[in-house]
Queue: 3 jobs
Job 1
Amino acid sequence: MKAAEGPDETVVTTAGARTDAAAGVGTGAAVETIQREMTAFARRARASAGRMHPELSLVSYTLLGHLEESGGCRATDLAAHYALDKSTVSRQVAVLERTGLIERRIDPDDHRVQVLQLTEAGTRILAQVTESRKVAFRERLADWPAEDLERFAAYLVRYNTAPAAPGAPATRTSDS
């Protein structure tokens, strides 16, 4: 993707749409471009997750990351954190348990509660996939100037920490 630098520049997005910078991209058009490009980013992330580990979907990777970061939690906590339906989390948890990446343990503070925690295999796979993702990001961004990287990082943080629109589920996660 090429960034517009002057009034005669043309921007070509990853979706192939062209906009003339001289015409001035209005807020509506900019928001549409952002939405389209973020959708392309999400599709690429889902596709690359499967290549990095065939048994580990992007959702599974994200859930494992949260379990590692939190030191373990209940399935209902995962559902609430990611604004997912409990049945969706239950299916993901079942797959992760079947593959030996997580296990249920009794909560020492409340014996009625089961806490999900990473197994050794889960910790190892998560570390491998995390490193592969870091390498992929470094390669993709290798020719970006440092100031562009810092600005892009700041924009992503700003976007992801902004309050959700009224009625929309919260989407900020530090591990996805």
Job 2
Amino acid sequence: MPPPEASPDLEPSAATSDISNLYESDFYAWVQQQASFLRAQQWHHIDLPNLIEEIESLGKQQRQELRSRLSVLLAHLLNWHFQPQHRSRSWLATLRVQRRDILRLLNENPSLKPDLEEALTEAYANSRDLAMGETNLPEATFPLHCPYCLADIFAEDFYPGEPSDLLND
């Protein structure tokens, strides 16, 4: 289905109002319409305020994905470290996948790298909560601040705590 077009006989303010209404009522159709206007270089039809908001939102999503993946990775590092008797191939796989995905995200979005320390700090609070929930260990078990440096977090051979036979398979 082609995107709805702004009516050529509408005044610019009426066309703008119709476009903004479409943004509120059918986001997908609005996106398709905006893409069509951009391809056709119909600048006067662009819903600039909402388009700016959506572009900014895309950047925020990348930063949120970084924090989210760091939270999962750190939680599993904590689990691995503080509950060695429950280590599993599943934990090992999660550690490996999250590391690869975070490194890929940073490679595809290098401007996120300067925010990495801050994202780590923000993610660690979540990771403590995740680790407490998964292990049922008391809060005091887990350090208040992240005990791992960035280099270790991303090192494929870093698994904190006592050695594991799972790493030799």
Job 3
Amino acid sequence: MAISGPQRSVPDIIGNLFAQLTVLFRKEAQLARTELSENMANVGRGIALIIGGAVLLIPSLVILLQAGVTALTDRYGLTPSWSALIIGGAVLIIGVILFLVGISRLRFEHIIPHKTVHQLQRDAVLAKEKVSKPHDPRRAA
């Protein structure tokens, strides 16, 4: 059976393959940049919403704490200064606990991927064992 159409040489086919691979890699890189740009825009919008929420949450927390002070004063007959001291102290303790827990989670040893490091170390040991074992031609057969 005869092949019809123009015959191309092997160097032409290989050259065309490399040209197409170059175009493919360029397009993939462009797609990655576009996707990264879109993702960064989404992250920026998310951060803006978090900041907006924080701006509204902080004054609302102050108002709720003032309501707690007023409730202690009205309900239990405490003076406003004692009520403020009790509410402020409780919130201070909670804040310090949250702060310390947050700092402890940011320590370097908590960030390191221990499982991955351990697996890489095991892989390195196995690779060294495979390389250092003498080749037994009788086992290959």
